[in-house]
Structures are given as structure tokens and as C-alpha cells.
Amino acid sequence: MAHQITDRDGQMYPLVLPGDASGTGGTVRAYLLNRAKPHLPPWLTVAGLGLTGGGANLLWDGSAAAGVGLTLSSVALTAATWWAGRSTSAQRRLHSAVTVAASSSWFTAAALAGPFTGAIPHLYLMGGASFALSWNVRLMLRTSDPEGGGGDKGLLAKVGLARAQLGAGQVEPNRVTAPVTLAAGEQTNDDVAKALPQLASALDVPRTAVRYRPDPDSERRGELVIVPEDMLRYVVEWEGPSNAGGSIADPLVIGRYDDGSPLLLWLPGDPEAKRNSTHVLIAGGTGSGKGDTALNLLTEIMSRRDVVVWFSDPKAFQDFGPLRPGMDWGVEGGAPTEMMVEAIKAAIPARTRWLGAHGYRQWTRAAAEQQNDPKHSCHKDGTACGCAGMPFLVTWMEEAANTLRYLGDSAFTGIAQEARSAGIALVVSLQRPSYDQMSTSTRASLPSVIALGCAADDEGFCLPDEVLAAGAHPGAWGNRRPGYCYVVSPGIDEDRYASPGRTVHFPERVVPMLEVLADWAARNGASPDPVTAKAAERVVGRAYTERKGGEQLQEDEDDMDQGPLVDPEDVDVEEENELPEPQPGDDAPMFDQGGRKPGPEEARQLFAAALEEFERNGQMVVGPKDFNDWCERNKLSRPWVSARLTEAYKDGRLKETNKTGRWRIVPTLTPADA
Question: What is the spatial distance between Cα 349 and Cα 467, in angstroms, rounded to a whole number?
Fold first, then answer.
């Protein structure tokens, strides 16, 4: 069955499908019939010419007037054919005109003298068969080659690939896929990739509508994919999660491709599908729709029953406020994010140890359930252990450029390299994942990317070179196509990497729906497993145990309801009594004007008390700058504080972080070597 692509000049290029959509079966007869169909029209035309010629003879036999009319009609029809073929190739124009002239001449002779008079029947049999076969040969040369490829060379010739062959294609709704065979020893797949802009121009379609998928086993074969209509231009608004109550191991639906098929993403791995777990980078410039894309992915995650979300947002949850109550732990930028990073680093070995003890080589959905299967028991006697399950953990770093400036460009390197085996997915969202913001090691450890519109110079930071060579071009969108994206991730067919998609839009009217989702996640979603919770508590203490801001606020309100706040020494003072008269010495300063510098032992006690105060306030990561006010109050210098920090590190009260000059407080109730 032949299908055609028309370029901007009106030239039609056929793509031949190997099968007929009507479905005639898989027999030899059906195959032969299917192969013969494209060649039948010339023969049917010849047969029709013979029948109409015989019928015309019954009406116009020997008529002089009919002879004049038929002759003029033949000349006019031949001239019209020549005129109509001006936009086609010279060969096609000449072939068509000669065929019409010969057919009309025979028809005139048969109508006036009779189809069986003299040489007329012989001319019909020989000439008709010859012309029909000539069109069959032309079709065969246009749609096949000796190697089984095919295609009219005109389209490829326009883009400098004249010796390439465009083979039998597959036509789907809004998508045409055709195999390309290049000239041996003369052309390579790179030549096709370079010619894609010219090919899009020849077909008068957007640059992103034409892609090339090279054959991994050949340097001169591949598939040309053309999507003539941009179905992504229609905005689709969010109507709720795709699989509420499902498992995080099921695919996350984050939008649609340009051919209308769903845009899917997986976070956990799947041993049976040979799919690895992944981390995700969301990259896109200002106005590219990065916020909607993040909401799309986050709502899919939070609607699943076996996942816990830790979320950092230096923008104070400007876009994600309605979802914050459904997160297990949400922090803003700076020191709170620094503590979250330390907690994640501590959770990785604890979770990996638990998974290994229960017989999991990687996290699967069974790991989130209570461990009642003897195959996944931590008991050495082979009996079911009944341990609580371990939900999947998503650690999300929104506006990560802010965090990377605060913590250093390698802040996430250790997490990105080690967390996947622990059932943890890291999501990093930032505008420009260039190497001056993020270390090369971190970028290399983020195998999945959602690349939205960006500057043309930033394409190489977002997508692999082979995907760009296949036709992906996020720089063509910039901030003019919000939500348009390319997705590269395990589980997605590599042929799809260069296919553009679009995430859904989140208008203001869906905010109540987001709040309902957050409430559902808080009530029905997974709770942190004891292993992960203990690891976080061990390194950041109250910063994690009192992570729910709403609960802490309620405690503060309860304290305020206990009565007026009065200093203990003033409890017995009657409000109605007059103040006593001033006494000698009341106006004397408590300290001299220069202040009082505490002695070494007292200063160390003050420093220990300061660490305890930081711990009580939930700030478990400190550095010299956090002691500025304290130094001013106690007349101590920052170098003195730095020396005390070093001593506390040697004593086990502090531990190093990944940033020079920053220390993590070891909770006082935890052994120093924890």
C-alpha cells in the first residue's frame, strides 16, 4: 500500500508499506495480492480503454463529425497532460504525455473503425501491454532497489544525499518512518544527521519534526522519522495523577509525545525488565515550563503508596506550597538543605545494608511491604522475619543552583553515585546544568534528563551528543514553547530519545486538587521506615525528628496558652505595688566598657553550651560564620572559634561535611563514632 509525502514544491515522494491496513491475512496469496496492488492501475486503465473503445464504436461507427471531435479531444487532452505535468520531473511529464497521446489515438481509431479492424486489435494488445509495463517498471524503480530498500531519490537529492535510497515506510497516525540506505563507502549516518535542517526545509515542517535514528549495527543505514503535524501545540491541563494509589515502580505519566502517545518515566529499577534505577535532571531556561514539569513529576510521585519524599526548595515552596503537607520532610535553602544532604548521605549505607540483609540486590516494590517472605528474611534460619518494609525514597533538590553555590559544585556527587542501589532517587532541578555549576562527576551520575527549552549553546549540557545528532533540538524552543521537552531515561526506547514531548499545564484552578493530593499522601502514603528515620535522626537530630513545621507551631501555640510569660524572679511581684525607690549603685554598669573576656575554661564551657543550643534549635551543621553573634557577645575571635571547632572534631563532637569549614554536630545521645 503506497503512501506519499509532499514537499513544499508539490513533489510527492512515495513511502510503501509492506502490508495492507485492510488485513488480508498472512498467506502467500495475500502477500502476492498485496505486492501486486500498486501495479494494477495501468492494467486496469488498458482494460477500461478497450471496453470503452468498443462501446464508442457502436455509437460513432463511420461518423465524420465524431472523428473530428475525437481528434480535437485527443489533442486537447494531450496538451492538458503536458501542461499539468510542469511541476513534475521532465521524465514523468514526457512519459505521461506520450501515454495519453497514444491511448487517445487508439481510442479514436477504435471508435470510428471498430476495435477489431485491421491492425487496431494488434496495436491494442502490444501497445497497451507495453505502456502498462512501462508504468510498472517506473513504479518498481521508484519504490525498490536491489538491496531491498527503496524510495524516490528526489527528496534526498534535494538535501545532498542523491545516492541514498529511501525505502518502504511505515505510516502511523501523524508519524511516518522510512528506512534509509546510504551509498556504500560514500555516505555515513552523520551525513544524514547534518542534512536534517535542509530536509525539514524541503518538507516545510519544523526542525524538530524530522529525526534520524541510525542503525547501531551499520554506519550507512537508519530510519528517517517525520511527524508532519505538531500535536503538542495544544495545551493539556492537569486533571489529576494517572495512577493514584499505585506503586512507584509503575510508570509515571508526565505528558505526551508529539504523536499523541504517553510520555513515561520510571524511577526504580526492574530486574526482570533489565532496567536500572535512575536519578533525574530537570533542566530548562526561564519560561521553559520547568515549574509545570516539576509539578507533573512530583504529583505522580506523591500519588503512589510506597514512596517517601524529602524536598529542598530555596524559593520557600513558592510553586510547591500546596504539596508541602504531603512531604515527609521539606526544607528551604541554606543550612536546612545542608542538613538534609547529610541525612541522605547517612541513609544510603543504612538502607543498602537493610536491602542486602533481606536479599534484595536493588529496591523492588516487594521491599516496601512487610517482610513475610522467607526468601527476603534477615533471619539466618530461613524463617520470615516480619520486618517493616522500606519505601522508596525520592530526594528532590529544587533550584539546585542555589544549593550548589552554598555547598559547592560536588555537593550531590556522593549521593548521585551511591544512592541508586539504596532505593533512593535524586531529582535535581536547575536552569543550566553547566560544568561551572555542577561537577562533571555529578552530571555523569544523573542518567535521566528532562530537557526543556534552553539557549542553543546549552544543548550540550542537557542532552547526550548522539541524541542531538538524531535531531533533538531544545534550543529551537527557548522559552517560546513552555513544557516542550526531550526525555532520556532507562525504560524509554532509545528511538524515542529524539522525539519531543510536552508536559501538562497546572493552572491556578488546580490548587485545591493539589491540596487534596497532599492530604491523601499525608494520610495514606508511606511513612519513613525505621532504618531511614534512625539514620537521619542519628546525624541531624531534632532537625529531622521535629521536621513537621505545623506540629512545631502547634507546640509553640500550646506553650503560649499556659499563661502570661513572667521571669521567675518576678513571680511574686504585685502589679499594683509601686516600684521601689532607686538605691545606690543601681546605675553602675554590670561590666566595664571594654567588656569581660572569659577565661579559657569558661570559654570552652560557653562553646559547648553554644553547640548544645544549636542542637536544640535543630541546626546540626555549623561553621565559624554561625558564631558571629556569639563571638561578639563573649568578646572572642573567629580564629579562636575555628580552633575550638577543630578540637570538637577531634573529640568526636563534630564531623566533617563535604564543604570545607562546615561541621556536622554529633547528637549528644549518640556515640561519637556513629
Answer: 35
608 to each of 478, 612, 624, 631, 647, how far by Cα in Å? 53, 6, 14, 13, 11
Range of the domain at 162: 154-229
**Reported pTM:** 0.64
Rounded CA-CA distance 116/124 in Å is 10
Residue 177: other Cβ atoms inside 10 A:
17
> Are residues 24 and 95 located together in one domain of the fold?
yes
Tell whether 320 and 449 lie within a shared domain: yes
Dihedral of CA 101/107/108/113: which sign?
positive
Residues contacting residue 389 through CB under 8 Å, at least 6 positions apart: 306, 367, 368, 369, 370, 371, 529
Q: How many CB atoms lie within 10 A of CB 69?
A: 13
pLDDT at 17: 39
Residue 579 included in any domain: no
**Amino acid identity, residue 234?**
Y
Q: Is the residue at 585 inside a domain?
A: no
- Residue 550, domain member (yes or no): no
Phi-psi region of 329 (alpha: psi -120 to 50; beta: other; left: phi over 0): beta
Query: How much is the pLDDT for 320?
Result: 95
pLDDT of residue 556: 39
Which uninterrupted H or E stretch holds 655? strand 654-656
CA–CA distance, 223 with 210 (Å, rounded to integer): 11
CATH number of the domain bearing residue 464 = 3.40.50.300
Q: Tens of pLDDT along 413-461?
A: 999 999 999 999 999 999 888 888 888 889 889 999 999 999 888 888 8
Q: Which residues of the chain have pLDDT under 70?
A: 1-28, 30-31, 142-154, 549-597, 658, 668-674
Q: Taking the CB of residue 377, how many other CB atoms lie within 10 A of it?
A: 19
Residues 262 and 209 in one domain: no
Backbone φ and ψ for 421, nearest 5 degrees, come out as: -70, -10
Closest to 176 measured CA to CA, from 30, 23, 6:
6
As for how many domains the chain has, the answer is 4
Residues 429 and 478 in one domain: yes
